[in-house]
TrEMBL record:
Converts proline to delta-1-pyrroline-5-carboxylate. This is Proline dehydrogenase. Keywords: FAD, Flavoprotein, Oxidoreductase, Proline metabolism. InterPro entries: FAD-linked_oxidoreductase-like (IPR029041), Proline_DH_dom (IPR002872), Proline_oxidase (IPR015659). One of its GO terms (molecular function) is FAD binding. Its cofactor is FAD. Residues 192-475 form the Proline dehydrogenase domain. It is an enzyme of class 1 (oxidoreductase).
Amino acid sequence: MATRVIPPRMILKNIRYNTATKPLKTTHPSLSPVTATASLVKKPSSPATDAWASFAQASVTTETAALNLEDAEQLFASVSTRKLLQSSAVMHATAVGPVVDLGMRVMKSRVFQSGVLRNLLMAATKETFYAQFCAGEDAATAGRSISALNEVGLRGMLVYGVEDAHENDGCDRNLKGFLHTVDVSKSLPPSSVSFVIVKITAICPMALLERMSDLLRWQQRDPSFVLPWKQDSLPIFAESSPLYHTQKRPEPLTPEEESDLQLANQRLLELCQRCEEANMPLLVDAEHTTVQPAIDYFTYSSAIRHNKDDNPIVFGTIQTYLKDAKERLLLATKAAEKMGVPMGFKLVRGAYMSIESKLAESFGYASPVHNTIQDTHNCFNDCSSFMLEKIANGIGSVVLATHNIESGKLAVAKAHELGVGKVNHKLEFAQLYGMSEALSFGLNNEGFQVSKYMPFGPVDMVMPYLLRRAEENRGLLAASGFDRQLMRKELARRLKAAVF
């Protein structure tokens, strides 16, 4: 067996996939993007690639590409005062580190597991943080949340809020939830849901994903190492990808593990077939590097089978805070093009930073995460530029999942420069539900398709998700000052209008 360190430890709607494109506006606000990008162009913290440099420069020279994020009245025109007050209060609370720390300690404590106190805390959580970041307790409620978003021009990525599964019974239960997502989605307005989200860790036991990742890493080291269960796939690793997780040659899968793998393949196949019948794309979430190789394997082998006729059904996720992200994206897209497989990717900055750094350190290796936040920004922008150029040429699709204002402005500038509006059904921006509202509304006002990542499920079931998000997005929550400032500005304007 390989030596491993195991670190501690999302649905709805039938659309004809993005067939109704939304034409870009022909006029744009006069807000200059020069100040938004000057610091990035002038002084990157590490050598940027030529592609990224041209990407940033494009935003400076394209006068019509400005993204208006200053007019609070326009941005929040569709948001009720009650909702604006609630969102402002929650976002201000989550920006205070000690408040988040206290909330996580209370929810994880024994006192919270049962009794009157637990019921009171659950009720308070449901009316505040849960209401802000989750779409509802069941499919029907989530559907209403989707419809409300759709009325103001946004779409939804509904996420069945389950966490990791460790045995087949749990995987089977989770699969039913994902399948129910696709079925229930048919009752919602056309194109109001952009993706069904799936966590491979919810439909394949974690231990098996760890074993598969070990075996895949060893095969990367030794191409003669045979994996009889492996199907056709796109490249999973790059030369710079970390392999330290697997310290010695792993044993082959046992008969029981091979049986579990067959069951996992059947679950994913059934979900892909249901999505294919509904013409609903399936977006696979990314996880930490301990299990990501197996997740990429499942994603790519499924994409080869189901992605046809320039219509990606299966999308993968690239976490650009990893140093090998750009190289892996290039290798996968090149291989997909060679095979004639239309490939879609979601680009995110990523999570699990603490886990990744500690794991690498335990093996005596440098962290696989970029050394600075600016390096991560550069990587995300560079990958965005690369994918925008691809879809401008009619190849592939991309979801730019970002809360970063500068990345949003750069992507808008690049999209306008390339004329991506002509094929904008292949481009989607995305933010977490309840966060970065100004960016979401601003992008939508500019004519782009924008989705909100919307977890749903009973409060008890979604609580682990909320705790994980709170820990992963601690920096993001603390850095949400731009949204908070705009919310205060708009609330003050409405109060003044009401009084005078």
